[in-house]
Amino acid sequence: MTRKSPPSLDLVKLCCRALDEKKAVDLRVLDVGEQSSITNYLVLATGNSEPHLRALRVELEKAIDASHTHIVGMEIAQDSGWIVVDAFDVMVHIFLPETRQKYGLENLWKDAVEISAAKLLAVPKPRKPVARKSAAKPARKTRA
After folding, report:
1. Alpha helix stretches (DSSP H) within the chain
2. Interval 72-123: pLDDT, tens
3. Overall fold of domain 6-121
């Protein structure tokens, strides 16, 4: 899938923010565009219980829908400890800790480039306005 567009990375950021807001842990982003023919990015996150996984999925769906991005598919096997949300360029996997450890997707994609989730979540600092130098105004003449 090697063709990447800036909107893909924007979608990754959006997904990371949505998951982070609902307290997902161990958030990792893998750029798999060179290795995968089906997606460019994998977002991996962990929740602490089945209800937490559902809350993470719902928040993620809301964020993706609000961005007017089409969700290609979703796998939600009851009590499996693993939810997958496929938004074509970005595929999100949300796990329970034991399920994440069992399947070890990070190891399956060890050739992928990891993108720092912390950097993706960082809010860009507003740029300081550049002070413009004004031309010196001539002094006003006053009448005596």
Report:
1. 6-21, 50-66, 97-103, 105-108, 117-121
2. 999 988 789 999 999 999 999 999 999 999 999 999 999 999 998 888 888 7
3. Beta Polymerase; domain 2 (3.30.460)
